[in-house]
Amino acid sequence: MIASVPLVSPKPSIVVSAKTRILSIDLLRGLVMLIMAIDHLRDLLHLGHPDPTDLQTTTPSLFFTRWITHFCAPTFVFLSGISAFLAGRRRTTDQLAGFLIKRGFWLILVEVFIINLITKADPFYHVIVLQVIWAIGASMILLGLLVWAKVGPKGIGGIGLIIFLGHNVIDLLHNQIVNTNLVWRLFLSARGFNAAIPIGQDRSLIVAYALLPWTGVMLVGYALGTLYTKEAVKRKQALTAIALLLLSIFVIFRAFNITATRLPGPSKKTRC
């Protein structure tokens, strides 16, 4: 009598299901939160002195705590795009569009009325600051409108790349309307925390994060969310190749000091 031997199939590569938690995304999001906590704690302890980016007075470790935070907001917004795509896998197109639009409006309300109240302790809202939560919320609304319009992931990714790669070209125009008009400032050209826009006799608005550049990041993240429908090996290979390509482009641009507002030339101090 011949004993039967059970056949063991090779372990398949994991394809992410609609309800699966993705450990790598959760870990990256948590790491970014820790980095931001370090940056905010440094702000509170040092009160801006010494300036961590002033190369005349800073130290390598202090400079690093500020430099590394430049990865945080892009990572949050990019992962929000991926999460939006994954959320859509268990919803219809109209349900996803409605979810993104409602969530976006909620985040804007949180930014304007809750975060500003907590950080300013001013119940009369004399100064309203629009930061990364506003940018994520408004970007979700625009993404929701694109989903509602039945634009597919490739189309959304294409729009995101156009914004992502081309929005700084506007800086070459030196258009006075872009620099002074509130709507243009909201969408295109934020001037940071030191540029307040009067919106009344005793109230002002600070647009720390312009909308469209961050929307481009979210749209690209949404398109790359399609990689999580593929096998893990293929997904990691694609993500690694994209990362190496972008890092190479960054090194080339910085080595030759190429920006949207400066032609190649001698190295000079440029804005971040």
Explain what this protein looks like in three dimensions.
By secondary structure, this protein is mainly alpha-helical. Among the domains are: 81-229, no CATH class; 230-262 and 268-272. 58% of the residues lie in helices and 4% in strands. It contains ten helices and three strands. It has a three-stranded mixed sheet with strand order 1-3-2. Helix 3 (72-88) runs parallel beside helix 5, helix 5 (132-148) packs across helix 9 and helix 6 packs antiparallel against helix 9 (211-224).
Produce a short descriptive summary.
The chain has ten helices and three strands, in the order ααααβααααββαα. It is mainly α.
SSE map:
Elements lengths: L22 H24 L13 H8 L4 H17 L4 H28 L6 E4 L1 H17 L4 H14 L9 H5 L1 H6 L8 E3 L5 E4 L3 H14 L7 H24 L17
Parallel strand pairs: 1-3
Antiparallel strand pairs: 2-3
The outline comes out as globular
Cα distance, first to last residue? 76 Å
**Cα radius of gyration in angstroms:** 22 Å
Mean pLDDT: 83
Structural class: mainly alpha
Largest sheet, order of strands side by side? 1-3-2
- Total E-strand runs: 3
Q: Unreliable runs, pLDDT <50, ≥5 residues?
A: 1-12, 263-272
Strand count, sense and barrel status of the largest sheet are: 3 strands, mixed
Please identify the oligomeric state. Answer: single chain
Secondary-structure element series: HHHHEHHHHEEHH
Give the fraction of residues assigned to helices: 55-70%
Please count the helical segments.
10
